[in-house]
């Protein structure tokens, strides 16, 4: 009987351990909220959300197309460049990060695709595509990345309302301790959302002629 009880207790603990991590609130500030959940390797997956009145999903994609202004609102980003347009909805993008001292600078090459999810939702999905471009010396290439921008656009009392939910998981690589990369990730998500909101409201961006359009992820790996 004792052995059976011990076996049941062991099975129960294994089941509990197999349950996926739940989102935990880190901070709410000025209309933005940031949650996180910890992966088994100790790295946080971050979810940041904000709702903005009077803007549309098209406004967001227009801002995103203005790669020259990216460092003005995406935290710790020094440079963004579209390397190749695979289709009207798909791009290969290079991003260089200006990491705070004493962290070594990172960069990443990513594949992105803009698709429709429902009548009110569109989504930009992003995944690492590290081998598309040769690595640079003294810069660590991020090779494990999954991210998305979910855009929910509705009309409320005649006014457009856009809810932006950004989810990102990235392994920074190198010798950077997880507690530090997690801290940077949380702060970056909050600062990025607040800066994003201001630029969308002020319309302080210059859209590129080739704004990413809705389509299919035909080149997705």
The H/E string reads HEEEHEEEEEEEH
Report Rg: 20 Å
CATH superfamily: START domain
Kindly report the average pLDDT value. Answer: 90
Give the number of domains. 1
Instruction: Give the terminus-to-terminus CA distance.
Output: 52 Å
How many DSSP H or I helices? 3
**Uncertain spans:** 5-17
At CATH level 2, the architecture is 2-Layer Sandwich
- Assess the beta-strand content as a share of residues: 35-45%
Q: What's the CATH topology label?
A: Alpha-D-Glucose-1,6-Bisphosphate, Chain A, domain 4
Shape: globular
* Main sheet specs: 10 strands, mixed
**How much helix is in the residues?**
10-25%
**DSSP, total strands:** 10
CATH level-1 class: Alpha Beta
Oligomer: single chain
What class, by secondary structure content? alpha+beta
Overview of this structure, please?
The structure is a single chain. The chain has three helices and ten strands. Mean pLDDT is 90; it is low at 5-17. The protein is 23% helix and 40% strand. Strands 1, 2, 3, 4, 5, 6, 7, 8, 9 and 10 form a ten-stranded mixed sheet that branches. It has helices at residues 2-18, 57-65, 178-202, and strands at 24-29, 32-38, 44-53, 77-87, 90-97, 106-116, 121-128, 140-141, 144-156, 159-171. The protein has 221 residues and is α+β, with helices and mostly antiparallel strands.
């Amino acid at each position: 009987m004792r052995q059976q009880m011990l076996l049941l207790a062991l099975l129960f603990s294994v089941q509990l351990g197999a349950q996926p991590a739940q989102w935990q609130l880190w901070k709410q500030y000025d209309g933005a909220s940031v949650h996180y959940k910890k992966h088994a390797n100790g790295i946080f997956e971050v979810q940041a959300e904000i709702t903005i009145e009077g803007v549309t999903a098209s406004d967001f994609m227009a801002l995103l197309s203005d790669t020259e202004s990216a460092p003005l609102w995406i935290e710790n980003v020094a440079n963004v460049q579209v390397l190749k347009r695979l289709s009207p909805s798909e791009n290969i993008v290079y991003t260089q990060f200006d990491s705070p001292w004493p962290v070594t600078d990172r960069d990443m090459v990513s594949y992105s695709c803009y698709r429709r999810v429902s009548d009110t939702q569109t989504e930009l999905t992003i995944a690492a595509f590290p081998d598309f471009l040769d690595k640079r010396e003294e810069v660590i290439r991020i090779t494990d990345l999954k991210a998305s921008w979910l855009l929910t656009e509705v009309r409320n009392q005649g006014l457009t309302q856009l809810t932006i939910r950004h989810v990102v998981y990235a392994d920074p690589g190198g010798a950077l301790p997880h507690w530090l990369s997690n801290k940077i990730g949380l702060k970056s998500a909050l600062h990025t959302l607040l800066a994003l909101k201001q630029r969308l409201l002020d319309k302080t961006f210059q859209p590129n002629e080739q704004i990413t359009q809705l389509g299919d992820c035909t080149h997705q790996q």
